[in-house]
Design goal:
alpha+beta, single chain, about 425 residues
Length: about 425
């Protein structure tokens, strides 16, 4: 038997971080909200985030921590709902938390505490959560109304919020539905690509993978627009180029060598700025002078002395690798000075990323030029909103993407 059309004030598509927060916000304003999730479980990415402890925000969150074609777009929503607001919510629910490093906040216990908090907030607002809502399709249903058809039935409302996320981690149910809906309603979409993702090394640089498991503190940055002279490829327009004269941002954290290339927080951060043809620059010894001892009069100058000097500032396996495969071009003062400079600006040329399967977030998405920054409503279609990762706003690693989810969700939830 066909199911009757069900009427609501707001329909939210996607029960991830942004969708749950938006539904709760709208519901607690007295709106009748249907929250449709195509999977069988809400908040799956919340549960795996932060190593299972959910890095739910960052104390230092600001507009400068986000990439977008419009570098100012995120500021309005973040000003309306910041880290302290979410911390207050967490504390009202009795969730214990701690600061790890660089302002990153984690649950003391499981990430499930954040998911359960959001579900309680939805219940408080009378939100109807509908799971396994597969095959979602959306059609206009008269002026200012939307009709959503799916395996769970048919729903109608004057407000539709798209919180379907990006393409990252497809095994968690990621899909391109949000981009399809944006195009359906005439919105532009910035090409999606993996962000906060491990980088892959190839050619001679694949020798680095012999060091799999080695970790070191470095400064990493992606230098956009550099020509890779080995293949003649020049990187296209790049997030770091959006501000004229902008310099690459160096991220000082751990780098991890993997069986395919490089990962770790420093490299993941730089990866959001990396495009094919870009150079990955590594300061392998930040704030350290490595070869000062070799430059002294009558100092020993050979590969053994180099290895010993490198071991003072780098993990032993990495020090041995550099000494054996990429030493200085001679032992003169000039050669040692050039090698010292190289250690602080080591150039690598990744051949790709590990793709959406390993990406923590998706860069690109619904063009912010088509959205109102204060409400997340589209400029051309009344009652249609896009929030969270589906929008062309991508945060740095460390809780920034969750804060964007909360902030954009509250902006839409207070407006729809």
């Amino acid at each position: 038997m066909p199911q009757p059309l069900r009427q609501f004030d707001v329909i939210v598509l996607g029960a991830g971080a942004a969708g749950l927060m938006c539904a709760a916000t709208a519901g607690q304003r007295g709106r009748r909200v249907a929250l449709l999730e195509h999977g069988g479980q809400p908040g799956r990415k919340i549960l795996i985030s932060g190593g299972g402890r959910c890095n739910f925000t960052n104390l230092h969150c600001g507009g400068g921590n986000f990439l977008s074609q419009n570098k100012h777009f995120a500021k309005s929503a973040l000003a309306g709902y910041g880290p302290l607001d979410f911390i207050a919510l967490v504390e009202r629910h009795g969730i214990r938390w701690h600061e790890k490093t660089l302002g990153q906040l984690f649950c003391d216990g499981s990430a499930r505490a954040i998911l359960e908090m959001l579900l309680r907030e939805c219940a408080r607002g009378g939100v109807e959560l509908v799971l396994n809502a597969r095959g979602i399709g959306v059609e206009p249903s008269g002026p200012g109304r939307f009709r959503v058809c799916c395996s769970a039935g048919e729903f109608a409302a004057p407000a539709l919020v798209v919180a379907t996320g990006g393409l990252s981690i497809p095994k968690m149910g990621a899909s391109g539905l949000g981009y399809e809906l944006a195009r359906q309603f005439g919105l532009a979409v910035v090409a999606a690509r993996p962000a906060l993702v491990p980088l892959v090394l190839g050619g001679e640089e694949a020798a680095w993978t012999r060091l799999a498991g080695v970790a070191a503190e470095v400064e990493a940055s992606a230098e956009a627009g550099r020509t890779d002279h080995r293949c003649g490829v020049k990187a296209p327009r790049h997030p770091g180029d959006l501000m004229p004269g902008a310099k690459p941002i160096p991220f000082r954290e751990k780098m991890l060598v993997t069986h395919r290339g490089l990962s770790g927080p420093a490299v993941l951060q730089a990866s959001s700025f990396w495009l094919p043809g870009s150079t990955l620059a590594l300061n392998l010894c930040p704030d350290r002078v490595v070869l000062g001892g070799l430059a002294k009069p009558r100092a020993r100058r050979d590969s053994m002395a180099l290895r010993q000097a490198l071991k003072q500032v780098l993990p032993e396996r990495l020090a041995a690798f550099l000494a054996e495969t990429a030493g200085p071009d001679g032992w003169s003062n000039r050669a040692l000075e050039a090698y010292e400079r190289r250690l602080h600006a080591w150039q690598l040329h990744p051949v790709g990323t590990e793709g959406f399967e390993k990406a923590e977030v998706t860069s690109g998405g619904v063009d912010t030029g088509g959205l109102h920054a204060r409400t997340m409503e589209t400029r051309t279609v009344q009652g249609l909103y896009f929030i969270g990762e589906v929008v062309d706003v991508t945060g740095w690693l460390g809780g920034f993407n969750f804060q964007w989810a909360w902030a954009s969700a509250v902006a839409a939830g207070n407006a729809c």
